[in-house]
TrEMBL record, chain A:
Organism of derivation: Parashewanella curva
Keywords assigned by UniProt, alphabetized: Signal
Top-level lineage group: Bacteria
Identification of the protein by name: Uncharacterized protein
Signal peptide: 1-22
UniProtKB/TrEMBL annotation, chain B:
PANTHER family per record: CARBOXY-TERMINAL PROCESSING PROTEASE CTPA (PTHR32060:SF30), TAIL-SPECIFIC PROTEASE (PTHR32060)
Keyword annotations from UniProtKB, A to Z: Signal
Tail specific protease domain ranges (all copies): 249-398
Keyword Signal part of the UniProt annotation: yes
Name of the protein described by the UniProt record: PDZ domain-containing protein
CC annotations in GO: outer membrane-bounded periplasmic space
InterPro entries referenced in this protein's UniProt entry, alphabetically: ClpP/crotonase-like_dom_sf (IPR029045), PDZ_sf (IPR036034), Tail-specific_protease (IPR005151)
SUPFAM superfamilies: ClpP/crotonase, PDZ domain-like
Gene3D superfamilies found in the cross-reference section: 2-enoyl-CoA Hydratase, Chain A, domain 1, 2.30.42.10, 3.30.750.170
Signal sequence bounds: 1-18
PROSITE patterns: PROKAR_LIPOPROTEIN
Length: 125, 526
């Protein structure tokens, strides 16, 4: 009887640990921890990943969802007309994920780790 | 929901310096015994990357700038322009030495003219990168939600509301198309010398000040509203309706910009009109300066349907002959853009099937503000023999595109590609022009010259341009032109006393306010 209880406890612990480990490795959608430094870091790292000199991200980006779209802004001349009115570039969709303690972004089909950025996992969307 | 969705849309600043490559080489000395890369040699061009980001005055902070000279900046412009400018062969290779950087760039363009005698290249310019970024305003305008057209910007100034955006201060306070601004904070709009007040009210940069606007309705009554600038999200597709006529149902909507929200809004509009079995369509493009080309392609598909568009080219972007197969800026292969029959992820999910009206004819309402992607819509449909009937004014004439390029704190624009339709036609730099008897030159289109009519709401079948379209549909006749019509009297000074509110004068003084550019002046600029 005592042996059975010990066995059950051991099995339970092993199962729970495996479960926790699996959980740690699982990629989950994430949102950004609300922090200006986080936001600034995100802009810098996205600019590097996308090979642009600068990326500006709205203050509410990645706060309620793990998805944002980045696009070049349209500009207008003094006559009110869009200057670059023939844009062939589509917005780039960026998803934020958390895997273990790391935050990642997914751009197109590839994942890229972010450094010095805090995020928290959210339920799948 | 849409607003929520668009709050997600962030901004990718347009700098593509990384695509331009380079910046890794060391600054070149002019004192070498061998010929320095900085020495101008007629017809000899080094890679632009040799000079990229070497600046006479490097910026401090998070910039790629390195110490260089003005000669570096000019040599970069020279090489970059020679590599990517559409008409690089028409640029005289002058020694940059006597020029300032800006003046040197200004002359790096063709001096050729269009068939009508206008400069072939009207889109060659630069702005300070800081100003350029400021103008983007994060992609969201600070304003009141009223598109205001400035008919005269110098005293006696005259400005009217062209249209309002839904759920904005302007529409909530009852501003309507045709309302004329009489006063701002009590200052007479027509004559006031308080330009700071007028500019700060019309082009607000802060959302912490309220302004009192006095406006005059088309019927002459005046009213005053207090409005505080706020962030405006545009609804580019409005006034979707079906107009019953003796000869069938005619669909109509205004399409004011090829911007993200339009993808789902255009689909909804066409869904609605398809359900109502319209047999004709009027697309009101009079204030549409373009944007995403893919939206023009999608709309063209939704007009013409799969049978008309299958395996056809909507537009092919052609770069100069140094780049016949690969886009020199993005590095992507140059492929023809077809007629898109699914969503592309702007506001519709990718792959969402688009509806279609399967029409062989479409009416477009145009002005000189109808530009770029809007003109591509017209040209793309004409390329597959869909009849386009044009009502209104000549379009702006912009079959070209470019990618802004930063260097040393200045952002440069030079025409890099031209769009052609399925038939290979793309030479409409003078714009598309409606004519009752069009000549077969590719740019004259069957239709009527009609002024913008501010005295009626957009979509009102008595509004002059829509009315002309509906009449032309049945009898192919056009209304007579008013004596003051700009194009009919091109080059003739308008008699101000004859000007009526409902008459738009499409000359160079005709400016549209876009809530970010300060253009109120004390004297005529042109």
């Amino acid at each position: 009887m005592k042996l059975n209880i010990t066995l059950i406890v051991i099995i339970s612990v092993v199962c729970l640990s495996s479960c926790l480990l699996a959980q740690e490795d699982k990629i989950a959608p994430a949102v950004l921890e609300h922090d200006q430094q986080n936001h600034d870091q995100l802009e810098i790292q996205l600019a590097k990943l996308l090979k642009r000199s600068e990326v500006k991200v709205n203050p509410d980006a990645f706060t309620s969802t793990n998805r944002i779209k980045l696009s070049r802004p349209f500009f207008r001349n003094e006559n009110g007309q869009i200057i670059d009115g023939r844009s062939t570039e589509l917005p780039i969709e960026v998803h934020l994920y958390k895997k273990g303690e790391k935050c990642l972004v997914k751009i197109e089909e590839s994942f890229y780790p972010l450094s010095n950025i805090l995020c928290k996992a959210i339920p799948p969307q | 929901m849409k607003l929520c969705h668009f709050s997600l849309i962030s901004i990718l600043t347009l700098s593509v310096s990384a695509c331009g490559g380079g910046g890794s080489s060391e600054p070149q000395s002019e004192s070498n015994n061998e010929t320095s890369p900085l020495t101008w040699q007629l017809g000899q061009f080094l890679a632009a990357s040799t000079f990229k980001d070497y600046c006479a005055k490097p910026r401090t902070g998070n910039f790629p700038d390195k110490q260089g000279t003005e000669q570096h900046e000019k040599m970069w412009l020279r090489s970059w322009n020679d590599n990517t400018y559409l008409w690089y062969k028409e640029v005289t290779d002058k020694n940059p030495a006597p020029f300032s950087v800006k003046d040197y760039f200004a002359q790096l363009k063709t001096t050729a003219q269009t068939p009508s005698g206008n400069p072939k290249d009207n889109f060659h310019f630069s702005r300070s990168t800081e100003e350029w970024k400021r103008l983007s305003q994060g992609g969201v305008s600070l304003g009141y939600g009223a598109e205001i057209t400035l008919i005269r910007r110098s005293p006696p100034r005259k400005a009217v509301v062209a249209f309002t955006e839904p759920n904005t201060p302007a529409s909530n306070k009852g501003l309507a198309r045709g309302d004329e601004i009489v006063a701002i904070n009590g200052a007479d709009f027509a004559t006031s010398n308080d330009l700071n007040l007028l500019n700060s009210a019309l082009f607000p940069s802060k959302d912490d000040t309220e302004y009192n606007f006095t406006l005059r309705r088309v019927n002459g009554s005046e009213y005053t509203v207090t409005m505080t600038p706020t962030q405006i999200t545009s609804a580019p597709v409005q006034n979707v309706k079906t107009i019953e006529t003796d000869s069938g149902k005619v669909g109509y909507f205004t399409f004011n910009g090829h911007i993200q929200p339009a993808e789902s809004q255009l689909k909804s509009a066409i869904d609605q009109l398809a359900n109502e079995n319209v047999s004709d369509l009027v697309v009101d493009l009079r204030y549409n300066g373009g944007g995403f080309l893919i939206l023009a392609s999608q709309l063209a598909y939704m007009v013409a349907g799969s049978e008309n568009t299958q395996n056809k080219t909507f537009e092919l972007n052609e770069f100069n002959d140094k780049h016949p197969t690969v886009n020199p800026v993005t590095g992507e292969p140059i492929r023809p853009l077809g007629f898109a029959n699914t969503g592309v992820g702007l506001t519709l999910d990718r792959g969402t099937p688009l509806p279609s009206l399967n029409l062989n004819r479409v009416f477009v309402l145009t002005t000189d503000s109808t530009c770029s992607a809007s003109e591509a819509f017209i040209n793309g449909l004409r390329g597959i023999d869909i009849e386009v009937v044009q009502i209104g004014g000549k379009t702006c004439g912009k079959p070209y595109g470019f990618y802004a390029q930063d260097n040393c704190g200045e952002t440069y624009f030079t025409i890099q590609f031209k769009g052609s339709n399925h038939k290979g036609f793309g030479d409409y730099s003078d714009g598309f022009e409606p004519s009752q008897s069009p000549v077969q030159n590719g740019t004259q289109i069957a239709g009527c010259l009609v002024d913008d009519d501010y005295s009626h709401a957009l979509g009102d079948k008595n509004e002059a341009m829509l009315k002309a379209a509906l009449n032309y549909r049945t009898d192919k006749l056009c209304p007579s032109l008013p004596s003051s019509f700009g194009y009919a009297n091109q080059g003739i000074q308008l008699d101000e006393s004859d000007e009526k509110l409902a008459v738009k004068n499409p000359n160079k003084d005709f400016l549209k306010l876009v809530l970010q550019n300060k253009i109120i002046t004390t004297s005529m600029a042109n």
